[in-house]
Amino acid sequence: MKKILLPILVFILLTLQVYGEYDKDAVVKAMRNNLTQLKAMKAAAANKDFDAAAEAIWALADGMKSVRGFTPLKGTATGWANTIDELVAAAYKGIGACGEKDIGKLKGAIAELGSFARKGHNQFRVK
Ligand code: HEM
Question: Ligand 1: distance of its center to the CA of 82 in Å?
Answer without folding.
Answer: 16
